[in-house]
Amino acid sequence: MSSWYKSWILLTGFILFYVAYLLFGAFVFSTIERPVEDKLKRDIQVLKEEFLNQSCVNATSLENFLERVLQANKYGVSILPNSSASSNWDLASSLFFANTLVTTVGYGHTTPLSDTGKAFSIFYALLGVPFTMLVLTACVQRLMHLVTYGPISMFRQKIGLDPLAATAVHFAILLLVVVLGFFVVPAVVFSYIEDTWSFLDAIYFCFITLCTIGLGDYVPGEKPGQNFRSLYKISVMVYLFVGLMMMYLVLRAFHRMADLHGLTSFFQLPHCDEDIEEDREPIIEAGHEDQHEVEASAKPLDPASQTSYNTINR
Amino acid sequence: MSSWYKSWILLTGFILFYVAYLLFGAFVFSTIERPVEDKLKRDIQVLKEEFLNQSCVNATSLENFLERVLQANKYGVSILPNSSASSNWDLASSLFFANTLVTTVGYGHTTPLSDTGKAFSIFYALLGVPFTMLVLTACVQRLMHLVTYGPISMFRQKIGLDPLAATAVHFAILLLVVVLGFFVVPAVVFSYIEDTWSFLDAIYFCFITLCTIGLGDYVPGEKPGQNFRSLYKISVMVYLFVGLMMMYLVLRAFHRMADLHGLTSFFQLPHCDEDIEEDREPIIEAGHEDQHEVEASAKPLDPASQTSYNTINR
Fold this sequence. Notes:
The structure is a homodimer.
Chain A: H1 2-53, H2 59-74, H3 91-102, H4 115-159, H5 163-193, H6 199-210, H7 229-260, H8 263-266, H9 274-280, H10 291-298
Helix pairs in contact in A: 1-2, 1-3, 1-4, 1-10, 3-7, 4-5, 4-7, 4-10, 5-6, 5-7
GO cellular component, one term (chains A, B): plasma membrane
GO molecular function (chains A, B): metal ion binding; outward rectifier potassium channel activity; potassium ion leak channel activity
Region (Disordered) (chains A, B): 285-314
């Protein structure tokens, strides 16, 4: 009982510290990069005025002008008037940047301009990336009982499926739920909010994001005059975190199924370990719903029964 | 003996199939995106000529012009004359794009322009990302004996260190080797080859790449008139693959050390499993150097002794 509480208090502590770490990063990035961005914005406006005031525009002067415009654009500073109102380094945007850094998504639609910002990015990610993996692993580990062990055990007891069939049916259902809940539905929402995104664009964004590829050709909340921009950015961060958790769960379920079907042995790869043992053990009929809770509370105490995630799950 | 061969033939098969998969991706991306890129390039040149030919340049016409320039630039098509010679979708660049997609680095300095390209990216990454993880896991698993078990066993036998100290010393040495060999030395090389990169820029690039963040503000081989561009791009791909492998090895060694020092138990996280058991077993004195090779050949046969990588290792 007390270990169950300890486990959840530890997880809550992890999540709170994670949020604090993101806020700290956002504050530092904003402090470092905001003045550099403001200067670049002023420079680019002066450049534009000078260009407009010159008597004749020739190819060379245009190219020199465009070179500097594109350079500024690379750092997320646009010369266009409607995009100069919002900053890339206000608190919400910095928080979003910090989040894409530690989750290794890295859209790169805004990047640090200053050497201090680059150096801080290195140190921030050096601690932040493993820490994010720690928090995600801790969350997934505690969700496994609810999302994987519970349903599989139920399929076997209630419907009488054998372990192989139960794991396959569970995987199929989980995949369907994740595809609908974390790809299709968010894509509908994104294509509704973002005027210029088609449904394919939105699905492409969801996929590129949740695989942590993060190409950055589509980034939510970047259109000029976006309503509730800060709230929108934070919602996308929550979507990203929960979505990554679900991706782990799906890949873990896949790895587990591959194990049971002998694929990992065939490819001579690491096994999913003790889960399989658990599946091979006779199931004790449980008449009350608290069983999984009891299992969850007992598990973390026994190192041999701990859930193990393989890199192949990513 | 035959299982040792089987293990290495399987790995060679994996790597060859991986290279074939990358080449296939490069060929498809190049076929799909090259015509779209060519059209955009022609459009942007026409736009530039029209802009230069107009009698007076006012703020509105300049802004309309810049909006289209920045839009094209987002897709990697630059209006500047010196960058129009090379394509983002020739075979080497497409190969580089395919590689950054499946390793989840995703610089995003070039992104698919067409809907077909976006849809293909989704399907390509859907298979490619897990496949890359499979190949990396298979490589790391076979390297562990050489890079981790061997040296640790040596420290214990030859120097007489206890398991905790041997693991800590091994981790410190491995970390130093990786920092020097995969961050400092490549950064020196990159800052030498890329004229505009400082040493900090190059270290920042190595770090952002090997963490698979891939912001894309620094991408090698993108300067106009780059010598041996294709060869350079392919070398960066090899650096990326081997570098990712070394990152796995370091994080695996860290996780192993954390396990032995009781950190994973403290945080109630998954263990590194059987490696620890191995460390706790009495070591049999081996007089000949072939011992680790024998270990390597015996290991993959026994599922219980297989190496397991946790997500926290990423």
